[in-house]
Amino acid sequence: MALKQYLRGSILMLSALIALTVIVTKAVKQALAIVDKINSGEIPLEAGAITELVSKSTAGAEGSILNIATFVVVACWIIGIIDSYRLGINQEKRGLQT
Length: 98
What we know:
mainly alpha; single chain
Protein backbone atom coordinates (compact mmCIF):
# COMPACT_ATOMS: atom_id res chain seq x y z
CA MET A 1 0.00 0.00 0.00
CA ALA A 2 2.85 2.39 0.85
CA LEU A 3 4.38 1.72 -2.57
CA LYS A 4 1.07 2.59 -4.29
CA GLN A 5 0.33 -1.04 -5.16
CA TYR A 6 -3.23 -0.95 -3.85
CA LEU A 7 -4.55 -4.12 -5.49
CA ARG A 8 -1.65 -6.26 -4.26
CA GLY A 9 -1.84 -4.73 -0.81
CA SER A 10 -5.60 -5.21 -0.63
CA ILE A 11 -5.37 -8.86 -1.67
CA LEU A 12 -2.68 -9.58 0.93
CA MET A 13 -4.52 -7.69 3.67
CA LEU A 14 -7.85 -9.35 2.88
CA SER A 15 -6.27 -12.82 2.82
CA ALA A 16 -4.52 -12.25 6.13
CA LEU A 17 -7.65 -10.73 7.68
CA ILE A 18 -9.80 -13.71 6.67
CA ALA A 19 -7.22 -16.16 8.05
CA LEU A 20 -6.90 -14.19 11.30
CA THR A 21 -10.69 -14.12 11.64
CA VAL A 22 -10.77 -17.91 11.33
CA ILE A 23 -8.01 -18.29 13.93
CA VAL A 24 -9.61 -15.91 16.44
CA THR A 25 -13.09 -17.39 15.94
CA LYS A 26 -11.85 -20.94 16.50
CA ALA A 27 -9.78 -19.87 19.54
CA VAL A 28 -12.71 -18.07 21.17
CA LYS A 29 -15.05 -20.98 20.43
CA GLN A 30 -12.54 -23.39 21.99
CA ALA A 31 -11.99 -21.15 25.02
CA LEU A 32 -15.73 -20.82 25.65
CA ALA A 33 -16.18 -24.59 25.43
CA ILE A 34 -13.40 -25.10 27.98
CA VAL A 35 -14.89 -22.46 30.29
CA ASP A 36 -18.27 -24.20 30.08
CA LYS A 37 -16.66 -27.51 31.03
CA ILE A 38 -14.88 -25.88 33.97
CA ASN A 39 -18.07 -24.17 35.15
CA SER A 40 -20.08 -27.38 34.90
CA GLY A 41 -17.45 -29.23 36.94
CA GLU A 42 -16.67 -31.62 34.09
CA ILE A 43 -12.98 -30.81 34.38
CA PRO A 44 -11.10 -29.50 37.41
CA LEU A 45 -9.63 -26.04 37.53
CA GLU A 46 -6.04 -27.27 37.12
CA ALA A 47 -3.49 -26.17 34.57
CA GLY A 48 -2.65 -29.76 33.59
CA ALA A 49 -6.26 -30.73 32.92
CA ILE A 50 -6.91 -27.57 30.93
CA THR A 51 -3.72 -28.02 28.91
CA GLU A 52 -4.68 -31.61 28.11
CA LEU A 53 -8.15 -30.53 26.98
CA VAL A 54 -6.72 -27.76 24.78
CA SER A 55 -4.26 -30.14 23.12
CA LYS A 56 -6.99 -32.70 22.46
CA SER A 57 -9.44 -30.19 21.04
CA THR A 58 -7.01 -28.90 18.38
CA ALA A 59 -6.73 -32.32 16.75
CA GLY A 60 -8.70 -33.41 13.69
CA ALA A 61 -10.46 -31.19 11.18
CA GLU A 62 -10.48 -28.17 13.51
CA GLY A 63 -6.70 -28.44 13.91
CA SER A 64 -6.23 -28.71 10.16
CA ILE A 65 -8.26 -25.56 9.56
CA LEU A 66 -6.20 -23.72 12.17
CA ASN A 67 -2.96 -24.96 10.60
CA ILE A 68 -4.07 -23.80 7.15
CA ALA A 69 -5.17 -20.40 8.49
CA THR A 70 -1.86 -19.98 10.32
CA PHE A 71 0.03 -20.92 7.16
CA VAL A 72 -1.96 -18.33 5.17
CA VAL A 73 -1.13 -15.58 7.68
CA VAL A 74 2.58 -16.43 7.64
CA ALA A 75 2.61 -16.74 3.84
CA CYS A 76 0.92 -13.35 3.43
CA TRP A 77 3.43 -11.80 5.80
CA ILE A 78 6.43 -13.27 3.94
CA ILE A 79 4.99 -12.47 0.50
CA GLY A 80 4.30 -8.91 1.61
CA ILE A 81 7.87 -8.42 2.83
CA ILE A 82 9.45 -9.90 -0.29
CA ASP A 83 7.12 -8.06 -2.68
CA SER A 84 7.62 -4.73 -0.90
CA TYR A 85 11.38 -5.15 -1.03
CA ARG A 86 11.27 -6.07 -4.72
CA LEU A 87 8.97 -3.19 -5.62
CA GLY A 88 11.06 -0.74 -3.59
CA ILE A 89 14.23 -1.80 -5.38
CA ASN A 90 12.49 -1.42 -8.78
CA GLN A 91 11.14 2.01 -7.89
CA GLU A 92 14.55 3.09 -6.64
CA LYS A 93 16.20 1.96 -9.88
CA ARG A 94 13.62 3.88 -11.93
CA GLY A 95 14.27 6.96 -9.81
CA LEU A 96 18.02 6.76 -10.42
CA GLN A 97 17.59 6.35 -14.18
CA THR A 98 15.56 9.54 -14.63
